[in-house]
Every structure is written in C-alpha cells, then in structure tokens.
Amino acid sequence: MKTEVKVKRKILILHGDRQTGDLLVSRMAPLKRKLLKPRGGECDDGNSKSSSKKSSKGKPSNSNKNSSAFGRSEEFKIEMVAPDGPFKWQFDPSVHVKKSETTEEEESENALMKTWWNRHGNEYGGLTDSLEMLLNIWNNDEGFEGVMGFSRGGRLAHLIATLHQASKGKLFQNLRYVIIASGYGHVPMPENFPPKGGIWDRFLDGNEHAHDSFVPMEIPSLHIMGNKDRLITIENSKALLQSYIDPKIHEHDGGHHVPMRAVNTRTILDFIDSVSSFAEGKENGCTSAYSKSLSNNVSVEGPQRSGPNEEHAQTQREECDSIAMIFPDEFKLLSPTNGNTINEFGEEQVDHKFPISYAIQLRPPQDQLDSDPDCAKLWPVRDIALKIEYTAEYPDSLPKFSLKHDMNLLEFKVCQEDSCLQVVNEVAEVELGMPCIMSCILRSREFFEEGGLIIALENRGHVSLQKDSEGKKGNQMPLPDDVENSKLVSSILKPASKDRIATCIEEGLRIAYSILDHKASNINDSGLFREEGDFDGKGGSWKYTIGLVGKPSAGKSTFFNAASGFARQRGGDEVDKDGIAIGGAAMAPHPFTTIDPNVGFCLVPAPAGSCPEDDSNSVSAVACTHGRDCYGRRLLPVILKDVAGLVPGAYQGRGRGNKVRS
Q: 144-150 and 9-14: which strand pairing?
C-alpha cells in the first residue's frame, strides 16, 4: 500500500475578479501536479535528478533509497490552498464591459463567481474583510510560505506583501515570496488601506510606509505578464516593479491568464525553489541547481536596472530640455547632471544623469490668484508641483508621477492627490509610445482649474455641493457662486460661443485683407509696412514672411513641409539672413518636435483683385515671374517659418513659439 506523504508546505492562491479558487486552480493544473511531485535535492550535485535513470548495468538505480536527497525531495512538495473571495461578484461599469445579451447559463455562472472587494472610486469596499479572512487562514493552518495571485488577486498579494513588510514580519509570518500574475501598479493604493483597528493597529503601530507605494520591498517577487494582455497591459504590470527590490519578471506571449506551458511552470518552480533553498543553502553550505538556472529563465528588472538605451535616452533628454525651456519659471531639475556639453549641432546642452527627474510648479502665481478670487478657490492653499521621473524605457513605458507639496491632510486630502494623479496617468496611458509630459502638465492644471479638488471630495463623500441655509457650500473649499452641480469651469477656460468664434474669424480675415490691400511699394525689405515718405521711387514687389503659429502638435511642421514641397532636407548648408538653417522640418506625433524655427520658401496664389491682369480678358497672356496655378492665379513667393508651439503664458514671453522674426 502506498504511503501517503504529509504535505508540510503551502502556498496561498488568490483568484481574480469574477472567479473562484477552484476555477483558478483547475486552470493551473500543470503547476499543481508539479508542485506535488517530488523534485531533486540540493547538495548532491544533481545526482538526485538522475536517480530514476538506469545504472550502467541497465538496471534501475536504488541509490535514492538511502540518499538524503530523497527525503529532501519529499519536502519540496507544496500544496495549493485557494479560498474563495468573501463577496459575490457584481457588475461594475467602471471596470467591466457588459455584453449586449447574456444567456441564462451565463447569468447562473455569474451568480457563482466571487470577488475580493467592490470598488467605489479608489476605495476597495470589503478589503478589510478579505484581509482578515486570509490572515485567519494563514495563522490557523501551518506551512504557508508564499502567496500567488492573479489579476485582482495579484493586487491583493501585493497588499499582503506590503502589510508583511510594514509590520516587520508580524503579519503573515514566514512569508518568503510573492508571485503576481497580471498584476498592476499604475494606480494609487486604495484609500482604505492599510486597514484600521484591532490587530492591524497593534502590528502596524502607525507605520507610515504601509500606504507608501514608493518604498521598495525586500521580499522576493516574481512578476508574470502577457505581451498580448489587453485587460492589464504589460506596461501596467511593469509599473509594479518599482515597489520591489530586485524583482524577477517572466514575460509570455499569451493574454490575460496564468500561462501553464512547460517553460512557464519551470520558471515558477525555479523561482520557488531558489527562494526556498536560499536560507537552507546558507546553513548546509550548498547551492541550489535551480538557483543557478534561474537567471536563464527570469530577467531581472527594477530600481537597480541600467539606464535607458540611446534612443530612449535621447528622447528623454530632449523632452526634459524642452520642458525647461517652455516653463523656465516653473521647472526645477531634481536629478544630478555631469555639467554641460556641446551637441553635434554645436549647441550647449545639459548632460543629464539617469534616471532624469524634475518638477513643474502647477499653482499659478499669487498675483494671478489675487486678481481672480474665484480661480483661487479652485487651487490648493499652498504651492504644489508635479514630479516626473523617467523610467528606463520611457516613452515606451509610463513615467512615474507624484505631487510635491508641504500641505497637511486637512489642506490637501489623499483622495484629492490620488484623483489628480489618476487623470495624469490616464493621459500618459493614451499617449504611451510618445513623449507625453506636456500633455500631462496641461491636464494636471486643468484638473485644478475645472474644480477637480471639490469633485474629488464629493466623490469620496467628504463634502456636499448643496448650499446650506446661508448660501455657503462645502467645507474649507467653497465653490464659486456661479457654479452648480459640480460643473466647474475656471474663468480662463470658459468655452467660446459660436458667435465669438465667428467674430474672431471675421477679425482675422479683416486683418489679412488689410495687409493685402497695401500696394507692393508700401512694403519694405523686412516685410513691414513702410512709413509715409519712405518711398524710393523704384516701385516694389510682393515680399512676405509668414509664420506658422499655434498650439503644440497642431500640424504646423506637417503643413510647412507640404507647402514648401520638401525642397530642402533638414540639416542642409543653406541658411537665411538670420543664420537659421533652411530645409524640411522634422515631423513627429508629439509636442516639441520643433524647437528652433524651420525656414522655407513656397508659392501662394495672389488674392482675387490684387493683380493688374485681373481686369484683363486674357489673363494667361500676361507674363509673371513665378507662373500661375491651375486656376490662372499669379503665384507669389513667400518665406515660410515654422515655429515652436505656443504654450500658456506665451503672451508674457514664455516659450519659443512667439520668438519668430518677420
């Protein structure tokens, strides 16, 4: 009769949202079987791995019967314990996508599904109940050594690891490792974490780092992520790596699931065995064969990684320098440098050390707030800045955002900070793959200008937007009197009406036609109107310089290249009278492609009625220097200048978009 081996080691398995423990374990059957199967020992130089092979005489070897490696291999057995979440799954429109039609079978299946919490904004409803249930399971059943979670269960595994470190190992004792599949770290920690009261207060003892996602944890971690995962992208999974010291990652070609191919299960087993054998190896003076092979299967990423490659480094340097140029008063470089260097174009630039980090002041100047009291009510009471730190693979991965300020929780609540960072990260996700900092800065300012502080309080139940009997609103942050029902729009962001737009267009056309109505002899060599009495009697010719101005990424360089016909490429030897290179403009789908003006020539048709031959019956018979277009209109030469995009405060001289010479 076969002797049953008592399993002494256990790993806690945490299922995802709309799932159960048994369902997840059934999909991880290959790993379950291998965890329960005896594996080779530690100190036998690999002999135990070949114990089942035949001897040189062709007979099975029995050396494993008396070998200590066999006993050790029995100890390698690990049991999966997979409890169900304590809450019934409920449809959440902010998280789930509802099918147009659901069958009766699907409805019955949904009724059986479980979850660990129900989200309310950034509050995880029921999180404390789930943590208490899991802590009881952990404490009442011996042998737990690790936690493995998938998707929402991976998020829960991360919270458990955070509690373990914050309590200095008192919570979830003997936790050796965490394995997180399809985890995510691009969102802030939940508002109701860490849990309060009872055992939590006793063991956490007011540890302020329990809510800090920027304090790396020492616990060994393996992060599994799918290249084709569309629900939790690989970038969102990698955002969690910053929370761990020396995290191991395993990428697979699948989607949103725990991969169970041989190479995948081998990687998980190698990780578990290497972590488990680390302490034992130090005691017994031997090294695990699994630990030796771990580096071949798992790549190391995290805070100690090398810097970006040359392409990413160049993009990061250029964007940082552009931000500093456009926001000279608000910009503050936080990362060290190697001084200044001369680039290939002979220009002086900062030689940054990586990772590059800097802060942008968000709060408007005090004089602007004093002149607009309603606008002042929408901003924090003290200075606040957006801190940006580039990751090694940025812009192909998200940067790290945080807010720098010295306000207390009464002046600036956690929910307000999280809401601001959430909208910033949303912009960064949309523009993933291209420099996004300018858009993020503008969006963070819009968050405050559109009343995001008060909306965040209302969404969290901290403040009511209803007027009291005295006509006042809110606590500490009253709304402007003309704003109701959270429809907050700063006075500087009020949308223009159709009439206002039409008026602006008419004014622009009036200015354009007033310029065209001047005779050629009324124009001097610089393209400006001549003063009266400044005529030299030589007549004159049309000579205009047109500057393309507008917001960043509005298509100015694209229009410039189309209008100038790519007559010359960027980097040519020809320069204009100001010493600016003449040629095609670089184009890219992100701001700051243009820093210095691009200069080119193009031909434009003369406006109707502006040429003498317009009154002639035979226009084509009249010669013209530069020819005519397909409609017979005379073509006139124009100098075209493509300048950098205008930024907020350009009218005050900020940025470079308004530094165009006519």
A: parallel
